[in-house]
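User: I'm putting together notes for a lab meeting next week and I want to include a structural view of one of the chains we've been expressing. I don't have a solved structure, so I'd like a prediction I can at least talk through. The sequence is below, exactly as it appears in our construct file.
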Amino acid sequence: MTDYGTAGLEDLTTALRSRRSRAWITAVTSPATAGKASLLYAQITIGPRDKSWRDETWVFGTCTFTRASLSAARVRSLFAGGGSKNVALGSMAVTFELPETNFSWRRQASLAEYGGLSLPIPSINYSVPLVGRETIQPPSGFLVGDGAAPSFPSFASAFSAFFSGDYSLSGSRNTQLGELSVHLEDLRARITRVRIRSASLEVWVGGRAARGVRLELNGSAYRASVVVTKSGRVVLPLPEGLPTDAWLWLKLGTEWLDFRSLGGWGGRLSPDVDLALPKDPVSDLTELVSRGEGAQLEYKQKLPDTAGEKRTVFKTVVAFANGSGGTVVFGVGDGGEIVGIEGDLQRARRRLTDLVRDVVTPPLSARVDTVTLDGRHLLVLAVPEGSGVLHALTIDANKPEYYVRRDATTFYARPEELAAIIAGRGPHHS
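Assistant: Thanks for the context. Below is the predicted structure for the 430-residue chain, given as structure tokens.
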């Protein structure tokens, strides 16, 4: 599906035919006379109900703002051909007329700004004009609300408050009246959260049909993609950090379902993108070393060599991965003295990364950082919090070992702890 195009009333009614959700309508009308009013503008969203939604009406001398819901079938009947239409919105009978001309549509990502509206679900948005739209102008002067309805110094400020919940007066501006803005939410799959780390990209995917869609990272110097197996967190590696001009796509075949521009393309970064990068790694490490070992922190003097040393180190890594996460700092003695890592630091980093990959199953999205403190080189292995995936230590082939963290000590996992991890309520939630 392309990003925008033109459609007719028949196309819109066809798109509405399979919809079973309610239609949530926010509208501006002329003053009601004998219970009847002319429609000036409306936003119609077809999808799940917003938790903050409530039917409401603000009556002013020059216009009326109202919210009401209808069935998708009733809304579809309103677009069946042009001509005069009548619909009940709350206690008002509202009239309007549609021309039999084509109009524009645009597909929007979730949380994209569109006409002052930011939907949490991807949508296709149709801009259907009203007959006589060129003569429909915003009311002028103060808008004084009847009864409990609030008052405003301009139509623009009243519109922002009613449609967007923004009661600030600065920056409000008049919208283009004379159209029906129809938003059909796409519930199949969407991006719900993004966290950018030093060496990985964590993406949360939701939706009714998330399984089987493809998540793709496309950047100037690095690209990666994976098929989503279920709703929840998906991890993409970033071996050289986030590439410039990075875009994140959620797609099905040649159709995109949702996307995020991670480089701020268009001058806007989506509010659900979290930049979780260390601002000052030296200060962070100084704080870690001074803290002393605990439930989520262990010191190791050097990288492990023998099978016994690997088991000692990586049973803790596995326990962190099965619980609340944690950090292992290499190059620090048990008493907190900084001894450093000998030899080539980058080679040691690659070796540690390979060890994590070789002895922890399934693969773990841990991050390995290099830091110099007091003239000595250290390696910091950051293990993310568990997400319902059960990790095992595999020093001996075909003999997985499962561990958990209790306070500041690592133990073999009990059967009930294994069951809790698989159920998504690991030791840190029990």
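A couple of points you could mention at the meeting. The chain is about 15% helix and 35% strand. The helical segments are 9-16, 72-78, 155-164, 281-291, 307-321, 345-359, 415-422.

User: Perfect, that's what I needed.
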